[in-house]
Amino acid sequence: MKLLGNMNTRNGKLYINDFSMEYLRDKYKTPLYIVDETDFLDRCKEFTENFRSEVFDTEVLYASKALLNIYVAKLIKEMNMSIDVVSGGELYTVLKAGFPKDKIYFHGNNKTIEELEFALDEQIGYLVIDNEQEFANLKMLLQERDTVQKVLLRVNPGIEAHTHEYIKTSKNDSKFGESIFDKRTPALVAEISAFEKLDFRGFHAHIGSQIFDEDSFFKSAAVMMDFTQSVGKELGIKIPELNLGGGYGIYYTRTDKNFNIGRFLRKYIDYLETYNERHKIGLEKLMIEPGRSLIANSGSTLYTVGGVKQTYGKKNYIFIDGGMADNIRPALYQAEYEACLTNKMDEPIAGKYTVAGKCCESGDILIKDIRLPKPEPGDLLLVSSTGAYNYSMSSNYNRIGRPAMVFLSDKDKLAVRRQTYEDIIRDDVCE
Ligand code: LLP
Known about the structure:
Blueprint: E1 7-10, E2 13-16, E3 19-20, H1 21-28, E4 32-36, H2 37-50, E5 57-63, H3 70-78, E6 82-85, H4 88-96, E7 104-106, H5 113-122, E8 126-129, H6 132-143, E9 149-156, E10 178-179, H7 184-194, E11 198-204, H8 214-235, E12 241-243, H9 261-278, E13 285-288, H10 292-295, E14 299-310, E15 316-320, H11 329-333, E16 339-341, E17 351-356, E18 365-372, E19 380-384, E20 404-408, E21 412-416, H12 421-425
Parallel strand pairs: 4-20, 5-6, 5-13, 6-7, 7-8, 8-9, 9-10, 9-11, 11-12, 12-13, 15-17
Antiparallel strand pairs: 1-2, 2-3, 4-14, 14-15, 14-19, 16-19, 17-18, 20-21
Helix pairs in contact: 2-9, 5-6, 8-9
The structure holds ligand LLP.
């Protein structure tokens, strides 16, 4: 397993930010979501320091769907970043964390009337309109309000990104946004900008997730800038802002390419400044909204090994005390992860093992055929790069309680407590 962030080894044991896994197990139990807070904040800085321009105002929005709780929202606030939410629940969480309202962006292809009302009442920074119906709903809701709401329109630039089918978002038939090729889109913009209670600021596009091909980002930026210009000209309006979404690829295993985010962002800014100037696009503000590339590598999940089993067919299983309930990604996307036995960092590889979870489902396999030292019950197994879309996509399948989450800097801070059996039945109506 590649050591990421502030991981290191001493006397054959793994440490994260100088905390031993035994200490964390004894204090918090397993399975345990661990976030290397120092590393996470370093990544936030890498984004804000490199996505910066003399020409444009720039904003880095954290795509909170990757991992959100009150503690994360507070960290993002301290880093002076903005945040994107996609549901009433995410909005509620960031508001409870005291996040500055003007730095909240609300996305989503089917925000309910209640969610739109919630956002309008709280007077958050931006609503990102997805489609005509949402515009109609907003018009209706704003009729009885005296506020002006800043909006972006999500559009689909039709860029093919090389990533898993389920996390592509921008093909012509995607459910998200209106196509830039659709003749009705400029007409919708005309209506939005003519409506006096909406302040139309520009477009938003997000082409997918876990993308390594830098060209896809440059292409999408060029297409979006051209579109901004042509709609602005056609309608005779000023379109000053552009949100280019997130999607930057990260390291999960050795098969993933390297994506140097700092270098990419400097090139990106350079490209955007030059294009804006050369083609007289007239943009004043640019936003990006990374999720995975901010948090995934800072997160790990710690498990205790229970059984170790060799099947009649000679397959070696390591059973852990978590699985698909805390990490659905291998089952859902064939996602691959690295892992190590944290108490056997210096021991020789003994063979190939399949790491299986405890859910009643054959598909509950976290890692296939990983090379590890000889596992024994009681060993600690750590899966790396689980910071994004693990906790946020976790479930109570088999009525397994969600793990706790701890943030490590010079101190260990419990951010989410472990669910108890009482939590499991809390919503059941007993009468
Ligand atoms: N902006 C929008 C509008 C998005 O839909 C997303 C992700 C992001 C930003 C952040 O993308 P990121 O930088 O994290 O790639 N559950 C899947 C990923 C779904 C991504 C959904 N949208 C997974 O586990 O891989």
